[in-house]
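Run log // design_07
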């Protein structure tokens, strides 16, 4: 049970238990010390009383006045009212001369025999020194005080017998005070100890939580902050950060190798198919050229041939774009080139009952390669058509701002997950629905034109944005 408990609970619990144990030990020691001091104080008080009574009882022994001795012995007991006390005055022979309890200790009785306790009997040996002795049954405490004459002769002995239960009130007072102080200290220290233990365990718990994320999340997504220090947790945190950095580097290398392998495969594929596609394309372009040389009076047919010719040239240049090192040789971009793309995408949009919101603010020739720009825009629009559910709208905005051509294509399709977005422009990568070369070709064209391609995606809205610097080397 405890082995499965988190250290964020173990540590404060352990500190709280240590505080409780320490408080219990300290309270016990203080109670014992208080009891010892109370016991010693009781004995000292009894000894002072014994000395006073011994001086007062001396005349009664000298004059053999039992009644006077009896009255003297009763006086302190009547004032205190303690029923557990007994005062016995013995003569020089150890016989009872007078006692506060005459029924139990009769005059002339042998006190040793009356008590029946060898330890107490040994204490009654003649002497001028006071003595303290606990009875064999542990119930009574005996104090002996010699009664001396003026010349120091031992006239008798005063014995004080106390029931040790008289110490209980004093012990309880000391214990109650000590326990009250201990509980007050616990009320203050336990919350502080719990908070301190929780604070100490937080870095370790945070480190354990971060470790569990490794393997379930991508290394570059694991961001954990730890307090700096050279203690054990600080060293573990430093090793963890180094491990994550190495995993990120390994992931980047793996991604680079995978992309390199994919690009190599695409290169081999494109080199193989380029020859097969370009041959029939060349024949079709030659056929259009031959037809024009014969002449045609039909303007509609000429417009159709121009559109077909631009499409065939687009196919030829797209094949060239599959080769990353292909040169960007094309005429400058005109507004008609962009309108051709609108015409080409219209059929696909109508097939899915999509409304195309077209916002073209390009009214002049731009120094950019027309074929590549048309291919970029066509690929993004085809991708938007495929991603959009039927019956919604997709939008395309074209404008020039700050010396750059800005293309924006938006659709109302599903959100692109973050993991897929990281590989969106790689060839033949996908999760669930595998995409092909369209976005990869678009990315390669944008890179060759020194532009920027960005994607933003939230549920119900995805936007691709292209920003291309105007190239003045392309003239009309």
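design_07 sequence
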């Amino acid at each position: 049970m405890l082995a499965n408990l988190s250290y964020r609970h173990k540590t404060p619990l352990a500190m709280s238990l240590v505080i409780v144990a320490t408080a219990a030990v300290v309270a016990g020691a203080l109670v014992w010390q208080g009891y010892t001091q109370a016991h010693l104080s009781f004995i000292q008080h009894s000894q002072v009383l014994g000395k006073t009574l011994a001086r007062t009882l001396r005349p009664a022994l000298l004059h053999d006045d039992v009644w006077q001795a009896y009255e003297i012995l009763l006086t302190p007991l009547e004032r205190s009212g303690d029923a557990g006390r007994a005062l016995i005055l013995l003569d020089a022979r150890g016989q009872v001369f007078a006692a506060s309890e005459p029924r139990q200790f009769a005059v002339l009785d042998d006190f040793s025999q009356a008590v029946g306790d060898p330890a107490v009997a040994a204490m009654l040996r003649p002497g001028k020194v006071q003595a303290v002795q606990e009875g064999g049954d542990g119930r009574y405490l005996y104090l002996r005080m010699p009664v001396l004459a003026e010349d120091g002769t031992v006239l008798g002995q005063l014995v004080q017998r106390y029931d040790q239960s008289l110490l209980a009130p004093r012990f309880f007072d000391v214990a109650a005070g000590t326990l009250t102080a201990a509980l007050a200290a616990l009320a203050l220290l336990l919350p502080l100890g719990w908070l301190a233990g929780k604070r100490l365990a937080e870095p370790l718990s945070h480190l354990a939580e971060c470790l569990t994320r490794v393997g379930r999340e991508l290394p570059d997504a694991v961001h954990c902050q730890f307090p700096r220090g050279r203690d054990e947790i600080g060293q573990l945190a430093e090793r963890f950060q180094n491990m994550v950095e190495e995993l990120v580097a390994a992931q980047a290398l793996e991604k680079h190798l995978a992309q390199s392998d994919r690009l190599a495969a695409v290169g081999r594929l494109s080199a193989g198919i380029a020859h097969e596609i370009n041959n029939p394309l060349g024949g079709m372009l030659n056929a259009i050229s031959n037809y024009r040389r014969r002449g045609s009076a039909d303007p509609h047919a000429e417009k159709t041939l121009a559109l077909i010719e631009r499409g065939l040239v687009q196919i030829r240049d797209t094949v060239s774009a599959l080769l990353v090192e292909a040169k960007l040789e094309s005429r400058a971009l005109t507004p008609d080139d962009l309108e051709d793309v609108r015409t080409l995408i219209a059929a696909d949009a109508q097939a899915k009952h999509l409304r195309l919101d077209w916002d073209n603010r390009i009214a002049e020739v731009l120094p950019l390669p027309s074929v590549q720009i048309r291919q970029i825009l066509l690929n993004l629009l085809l991708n938007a058509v495929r991603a959009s559910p039927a019956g919604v709208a997709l939008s395309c905005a074209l404008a020039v701002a700050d010396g750059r051509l800005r293309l924006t294509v938006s659709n109302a399709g599903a959100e692109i997950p973050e993991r897929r977005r990281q590989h969106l422009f790689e060839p033949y990568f996908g999760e669930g629905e595998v995409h092909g070369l369209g976005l990869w070709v678009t990315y390669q064209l944008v890179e060759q034109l020194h532009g920027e391609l960005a994607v933003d995606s939230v549920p119900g809205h995805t936007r691709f944005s292209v920003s291309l610097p105007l190239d003045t080397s392309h003239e009309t």
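The longest strand covers residues 154-163.
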